[in-house]
Protein: Diaminobutyrate--2-oxoglutarate transaminase
Amino acid sequence: MEIFERLESEVRGYCRGWPVVFDQARGSYLYSESGEAYLDFFAGAGSLNYGHNNPALKQKLLDYIAGDSVIHSLDAYSASKREFLRTFDEVVLSPRGLDYKVQFPGPAGNNAVEAALKLARKITGRETIISFTNGFHGMTLGALAVTGNSMKRGGAGVPLSHSATMPFDNYMDGQTPDFLWLRSLLEDSGSGLDRPAAVIVETVQGEGGINVASPAWLRGLAELCAEYEILLIVDDIQMGCGRTGPFFSFEDAGIQPDIITLSKSISGYGLPLALTLMKRELDLWDPGEHNGTFRGPNPSFVTGAAALDAYWRDDRLQRDTELKGKIVEKHLQAIAAAHPQLGATVRGRGLAWGLALESPEVAGAACAAAFERGLLLETSGPQDEVVKLLPPLTVTEDELDRGLTVLAEAVAAAAVQQP
Structure:
């Protein structure tokens, strides 16, 4: 550990909760260099929906590299990009009746968000972006301006402006608000709210604590945006690619956002890749107006196309994810019922779940106890009070049962430690 502590910045985070050196990974497991196996219920913060080193994707990548194929190509045409776009259209867009243009804005989710915000302002000529309480959209300045967490916002070092925050679904004492309040602000010239360029929303807030928006709330938001000619951006970076069941997390609501951001598991293999999707008529970029060096990650195109081909030509993965989600929910409800003194609540969709506890200390202690027992978990929420579960979608039912059993033991141990 000495080299990390001496040379790596104090900003490092996950390693503090998992103080081992990992050197191998297969399926749902990470392995330390001393040979311990850790069941991974974090999956690269949702970047590894298909598990570690998925064999079907790995072989495609190895063959591509062995053939001296193009690795870096900026936004030049490449055979691997063509195959990714063809597969994405054939497997994802066309079956859902979606007509989007695809932008490759850079390697990470925040690149997709920055491009979406910039495009929305260019299209509308307006500046303000509406975001929601406990939302998280990235760590660069534009993305931070529409992020709720005060600690992350404070790291910007400069004022974060041109945004307005509104309450997310269930934020106000468990209520599902209608949009009369926002409509009133938009209609009233004295409200202080400038006509927004866009609204950006996560259908399930991952970093915010696994807060789930109802389909009705999302439909109401989409209807309001259409009524006032405000662009609707859905940030599907963590919850897309099947994390909630369907490929896109907004499908159950029956809406079609104007702009969508994707990253994390879109490459299939944990490699960097991000997409900004916009309705065809919104593609008003001038050539080179938004660019970057790493917009052509060809190995990511290869594994991304392979993942789409392997998992999204039918609905088996979606059905498996929804079934496994019910298993997780049942186990978490049992854990909550076993420890009424913790004030636990359960929330989630698909294979994104949270066990929200009244005490952040208990949540942290539960994750620490899980690590000691060979299970990787992290906390989320404004106070880190939510134990967050993001297992690979390819996790087996036996692995799921083992991990949930360990979690029950870890929560029990954490509960005993508290005064």
Q: What stands out?
A: The radius of gyration is 21 Å. The chain has a mean pLDDT of 95. The CA atoms of residues 84 and 305 lie 5 Å apart.
